[in-house]
Amino acid sequence: MQRDLVTLSISSAGQPAADAPVASPSLRVVTMRVDSASLLMNNEDEWAEIGRGLVLHISFFSTATHAGMRKAVRKLLRLPLLSRGKWGDEHEPESVLKLAPDEGGIDVLVVPQANLTGAPSSSSNSVRYTDQLPKDAAREMYKCFCDEISIASAEALRPAAALSGAELEAEIRAKEARNSQDPSLTFKTGEFAGVYSAFDERGVPTHDAQNAPLSKAALKKCEKIYKTRAAKYAKAVERGDAGGGGVAQPAAAEAVDAAAAAPATGGGGDAAPLGAVAAAEAAGTVLPRVVCGVFGNRQGFRCVSAGPTIHCFDL
């Protein structure tokens, strides 16, 4: 399956022009909003259950990286995939990070589904899995993905006072980098990298990663983000902290990308990122409850949902 997308830029004459290639996705995920769900944990009769929340069926591509995985987790936690009431009522769709503290907790169930990266063979009536990450590497990536949901949630939701000095400094650097970055790069780097495939002459997206035109609501949201970034960039230019006249700032772009991909800072080793979770819990932060299936099991599954249920993303 061809996944080497090419980013397009809409020129002033209205003609698409080839730009830098979009990074290959690290994972494919099918998301489900559910009222309740159960997952078979031992291939026999032990079921883990969740209440209202989000189910993530996940598989990793052969091109998966830890940095790409961490960015994907942060994106999934911020996408408006849930709602307070029934879908389509007066409530707008909201994210896991928004609803977890407001609703007193949201459940997230992670289901390893290696076959998601399969594709039908063009030469026979069979399914090929050549795009899959090898099993041992996928097992390790899956464990890190499950840990990262709690880590990223803690980083986003815990009070600022709970952050260490190093973490606060990193957040300040990332914010300064965003503010000094040419706004034409906003949707091509950092948290937006790989999300869009075509842009107008200002760098504002016109098409999503699958090259489908953005909806009016999505275009309006991108315009709002662009105007905010442009205003901050203009102030940075006035202070002499950024180049003027629409000149791209590669260093700032790299800093934004690094901030989005970096794990939590701390005392070092695996304990440092997970320490962010302990610090958040100690501060009374309500985090999503994460339940993860057993890698390699057959993943018996059942759920109840008022619908609509499913999205599918390559991230």
Structure description:
Mean pLDDT is 79; it is low at 1-21 and 244-272. α1 (66-78) crosses α3 (135-157), α3 packs parallel to α7 and α4 packs across α6. It contains seven helices and 14 strands. With 315 residues, the chain is an alpha+beta fold. The chain has a domain at 1-161 and 285-315: D-tyrosyl-trna(Tyr) Deacylase, Chain: A, CATH 3.50.80.10. The relative contact order is 0.21.
CATH-derived topology of the domain at 1-161 and 285-315: D-tyrosyl-trna(Tyr) Deacylase, Chain: A
SS element count, helices:
7
The named CATH superfamily of the domain at 1-161 and 285-315: D-tyrosyl-tRNA(Tyr) deacylase
The CATH C-level class name of the domain at 1-161 and 285-315: Alpha Beta
How are the strands of the largest sheet arranged?
A: 12-7-6-3-14
Structural class: alpha+beta
> What average pLDDT do the residues reach?
79
List low-pLDDT spans: 1-21, 244-272
Distance between the termini: 15 Å
Could you state the order of secondary-structure elements as H and E?
Answer: EEEEEEHHEEEHHEEHHHEEE
Please tally the β strands and state the result. 14
Give the biggest sheet: 5 strands, mixed
- Our estimate of the beta-strand percent is 15-25%
Summarize this structure briefly.
The chain is an alpha+beta fold.
Give the topology, please.
Elements: E1 6-10, E2 16-21, E3 27-34, E4 36-40, E5 47-50, E6 53-60, H1 66-78, H2 96-102, E7 107-112, E8 119-120, E9 127-128, H3 135-157, H4 165-179, E10 196-199, E11 205-208, H5 216-239, H6 250-261, H7 271-282, E12 289-292, E13 301-304, E14 310-314
Parallel strand pairs: 1-10, 6-7, 7-12
Antiparallel strand pairs: 1-2, 3-6, 3-14, 4-5, 4-13, 8-9, 10-11
